[in-house]
Design a protein that fits this description.
Blueprint (H helix, E strand, L loop, with lengths): L14 E4 L4 E3 L8 E5 L6 H12 L1 H5 L3 E6 L3 H11 L4 E4 L4 H5 L3 E6 L2 E6 L3 E4 L5 E5 L7 H15 L1
Parallel strand pairs: 3-4, 4-5
Antiparallel strand pairs: 1-2, 1-5, 3-8, 6-7, 8-9
Length: about 160
């Protein structure tokens, strides 16, 4: 597994499709604060909690940054997840997990004695200049949205 980019390092560049079928390129987001939160799978309990908390706080969060969820699910899966829970932010499809590998969040997982490759629940805040400003590892879904909001507000005051 590739090491995650660290604070102050350039965020790895990528272009992927979102749940609207549009291409999203990190280079096109320069000049904006960006939140990239990785989650393992659409419509699973922890991922739903995290997505719905971000949805419920989206008005505040979107005033601070561009927010994207990213997982190895397909665009079609993202559309169903988005529509089911009325998610106002874009979901990025990383079906080949290439972006997850660039960010060091794709690796060996263990669950109930079974080993498999998957996503580590991790969030990156990227500053307007394209560098990593904050990394949240081993994210707990409940409460993460407010943690993001507080961190974004602090980072913006410091910059």
């Amino acid at each position: 597994m590739t090491a995650s980019p660290q604070i102050g390092e350039p965020a790895p560049l990528f272009t992927v499709q979102d749940d609207r079928g549009e291409s999203v390129a990190l280079t096109g987001l320069r000049g904006h604060w960006v939140v990239l939160y990785w989650y393992p799978k659409d419509d699973t309990p922890g991922c739903t909690i995290e997505a719905c908390e971000i949805r419920d706080n989206f008005e505040l969060l979107s005033g601070e940054a561009e927010v994207f969820g990213i997982s190895p699910d397909s665009v079609a899966s993202h559309v169903k997840f988005r529509d089911k829970f009325e998610l106002p932010f874009r979901l990025l499809a990383d079906a080949d997990h290439a972006v997850s590998e660039q960010y060091g969040v794709w690796g060996l997982k263990k669950f109930m004695g079974r080993e498999y490759m998957g996503v580590d629940r991790t969030t990156f805040i990227i500053s307007p200049d394209g560098t990593v400003a904050k990394v949240f590892e081993n994210v707990k879904p409940a409460g993460h949205a407010l943690e993001l909001l507080k961190t974004l507000q602090t980072l913006k005051k410091e910059s």
